[in-house]
Fold:
Amino acid sequence: MSKSVAANPSKQGFNRKKLISKFISYFFLLLLTCITIVPFIWTVSISLKGQNDVIFSIPPQFIPNTFTLENFITVWNTLPIPRYLLNTVFLTFFGVVLPLIFCSFAAYPLARMKFKGMNLIFILIIATMMIPNEVTMIPVYLVIDKLGLMGTYTGIIITGAITPLGIFLMRQGFKEIPREIEESAVIDGANVWQIFWKLMFPMVKPMLGVLAILCFISSWNNFLWPLLILDDPNKYPITLGLYQLQGAFSANTRLIAAGALIALIPVIVVFIAFQRYFIEAAYSSSVKG
Amino acid sequence: MEKVKGKLLFISLLGIMLFLFAACSNDSGSESDGDQGSGNDNEGTDSGELAGEVEFMTISLLPAFEDYLNNLKDEFESMHPDVTVTINDVPYDQVEQIILTSASSGDLPDVMNLNTEFVKKIGAMGALVNMDEAAADVKDTFFEGLWNTGGVNGTVYALPWYTTTSGLIYNPDILAEAGFDAPPTTFEEAWEMSKVIYEETGAYGEVIQGEMHLLFPKNGIPILNEDNTAAAFNTPEAVELWTNLKEYYDQGLYELDVMLNQVSMAELYATEKVAWWATGPQLFRQVNDLSPEVYEKSLGGAALEGTAGKQHANPMNIAVSANSESLDAAVEFAKFVTNAENQLEFGKEAAVLPPVEEAANDEFFAQGEDSEDATERGRYYAAQSLATAENMSPQVENVSQVIEAIQEAFQQVILNDVDPADALSQAEQEVNSVLE
Structure:
């Protein structure tokens, strides 16, 4: 009896300590969540507010006086949203698939083959990551212009078809696969292409997923290149299309909020579907990069 | 063996690259040949009727003014059946990127809606048509002060399309709480009132906004000398002006948030944290979007005057690319867009003002003095100041650097307690080196 009494307080103390530390960490996590989610809730709230509702007031008012879906309807009616979304999906599809293929093509030899100047090539590729986009913007624009690709989707897609970050990530992916697997394939008589396509490529799936997510985000949000290259509003992706809600003299914040949410929904769906990979993406691009 | 293989690979790669380069240069060669050919074709038809394609770049006007722009297009095309006009609207924030990239590849839109700063930048690059010559026939229809806004280094490169002068939107409730029944009319009065308003209500009165360099010319201090070759603002009057502003800041009469783009005036005004907002009446309705209640009780008035008694006009211009393949049609379209009739029409739609005298004298702009609506009343006062208004921004290519130097010096005074006289001479030096 006395033993159990003696044992309990220490266990309780331990539990309490654990509880307190858990409580503190959850408290801060919740706080962080609240801070990061406020802009989103704010946007949702504005998008649901009627024309006579106050947007800016102190203290801020989150729950609209008059709930209305009018803003969404207005946005839907003033802009060809389905058209824009379709354009974005098209661009994003190629913006994801092409880098997966091309970056793997470039990364595999860099990870697995031995040839003269291999390191130099790799360093040169990585070095381009240090050049800011603003510097390469005009030369790339000129190249696209000279290729006669102005106003075409091809012009946009090739600007992102292969990225140094992608090559870097895929190289890491290939490096992690044990050499023995490759060697056994050689013994079985597979040639280089078969080894790459049938064996190695399927094995780097996790890294492909990571790259796909990064490419998805950047393609979906791509604004600059469509802006510079496209001149026909019917070809605009959603990011560019939504910008039309911001006029020269007026910007109806309610409509902009509604438009932003419409554009966000597909991203949220993709996020929920690939949540697991997202975390991995964050890891592999930060820890290893 | 491996070495030989490597060499072979290297050589073949080199060969492929050379081939690609050659292919590219061939391509561009034939393309430019084609361009010249079509250019000649155009000149051939120019002697008779106008022909060609005209791309018209507007800034953030779609979809709000879609009908108006399409009407312009249709009307012009029916006047000149061989001309096709395409309208390409771009977001305001991105104009610089688009213009600079397309200018560097010689691929500017034929007709462009540009603000005065861009006209100066691109005009100085030699990429725009000289309007003193190309539009000499319509020059006299514009207000002289506004015609000159498209100028840099003594040449005018753009036609004024629409312009805005300031009005004042004010909150009578805040004024009444502080014991005033009318808004201020001069800056001096404004700061006096600001003190009382701040003490009585905690709200701000006058606020230093982004374009604080304009306070110089508004108070009779020239920004640059007459030939635009050196700074001229380092005067005892300017020292006094900045010393006063520093004092007001120390008294808590205003924050720098607005000037530093941390917060927009529309938001401040809509949350009743500021008693008045001096800006173009076309922007008053932003308040209505943010807080209909505050807009409802607001009234419109005349912009504040400095000791010079003059107002700043902030025009949007229409410029034509010097490389345009259908140059004559493009110039004709630019004149068409800026003629009295079309300017008046646009002024009515957008609550902006026309720089063509005939349009500005239309009775439409003489209405609204007693209007309950802040925008209408503001527009009345803004239109009244149009005849004497001028664009006070320096007429030089590096105008944005000049403005930045002045703003930064002012921030030094406010935030780092630098002596106004020192800050002004520092800014003077910087502006002089920019202009060299």
Observations:
- Chain A has a mean pLDDT of 86.
- The domain at 73-286 of chain A is CATH 1.10.3720.10 (MetI-like fold).
- The radius of gyration of chain A is 26 Å.
